[in-house]
Design goal:
CATH superfamily of the domain at 92-205: HUPs
Order of helices and strands: EHEHHEEEEEHEHEEHHHEHHHHHHHHHH
Number of helices: 18
Helix content: 40-55%
Strand content: 5-15%
Structural class: mainly alpha
CATH topology of the domain at 92-205: Rossmann fold
Radius of gyration: 30 Å
Shape: elongated
CATH architecture of the domain at 92-205: 3-Layer(aba) Sandwich
Strand order of the largest sheet: 3-4-7
Amino acid sequence: MTTLMSTPVRVRFAPSPTGFLHIGGARTALFNWLYARHTGGTFVLRIEDTDQARNTDEATGAIYHGLRWLAIDWDEGPEAGGEFGPYFQSERNEIYERHLRRLEESGHLFEDNDAIRFRSPREHVVVDDIVCGRIDFDLTNPETHPDMTIRRPDGSWIFHFVNVVDDLEMQISHVIRGEDHLSNTPKHIELYRALGAEPPRFAHIPLILNQDGSKMSKRDAGASVRTYIEDGFLPEAVRNYLCLLGWSPKDDREKIAIEEVVRLFDLEKINRKSAHFDLEKCIWLNGEYVRELPDARFLALAKIALQNAGIDTAKFSDSYVDAALATCKGKFRLFSELPDYGGFYFRDDVIYQPEGVAKHFTAQNKPRLQALRDAFAEVEMFDATSLEAVLKATAAQLGLKARDLVHPLRLAVTGSNAGPSLYHLLEILGKAQALARIDRALESFT
């Protein structure tokens, strides 16, 4: 377990606003946030926007939106404030100039073709990483470790320098970041020492890989947080899944409340080996969360999903909409699947699945469905129990099994071969609507 230190825990997430929020970046932010909440520390958001040619306001907004959607709130940073600002690197030039002068005065810098470079002490640097362990980096050879540039000829800053200065100025106690930054760490420690400062503790978390072992890129499925928002994932499900990419509660649980993760989370418990991203598992976990949603939130999200698909539920009574959507709960994993699963409730024209038409809308089935339609027309109490009894009785009279009528009937009223409980959906549609849909289907039979 974490030993609470005399100095407060301060961690940061420092993305560059050059594109969408990557799922790997979101996982890094989450692990920083979890550690801050576990220790009672502070989580800082800092925007590393020194690359003016690639940075965009849209990308910055996507970072804010993605973090807030995942309920990863920052204690200091843009739109939150704090005593260590500004929190945009583009606004911190005077701070960088001050530290540059300190290095110049102490003889650590030299000019090379109008660029300013840091003179390496040429020594071994030992990184005592919380996750990766103790690593000895040999920086004595200038061929493999050239003196690093910290300011380009055009006056722009190199990442290594401003990153260290910001962490120093913001009193960051722990740097929790992806393992791909591990090789940068000895360079950063050299800068800390040159500035006369104690480096923070480092924890390099495992990379996120695809199922085939390749590094997850921006083009891979599931790489963008925006995709999860648009595809109808629940933020708590995605956050839960991200917690399991490199960390686990050690008891084989997969669905775990965030409050419990905060209580159990510790940097020493992060796995050393790379995490393999499994989108299907994330979708499964989302389905478990959807299944357990309170009714009010389920209905609200379901209506939004239908609206996003161009389905207007406002034309129907609240009781009809609520009853229809209740038959869909627990039957899909993503809200983006709902329009195809239950959209038939709210469409005037049923769109039949072609494979279903070929299999069930046949000359042999037409008189059978007609007989069932006529039997339904005589039903006084058009409820699920009565309809089931009538269908089974009609099937028996025709010398058929119930399923011989169920499949063409379902296709007739929903357009699909699968969906909510047939008898309950018929009850919700109501007698007039159900019979009208059967009549329309009968006209389509071959």
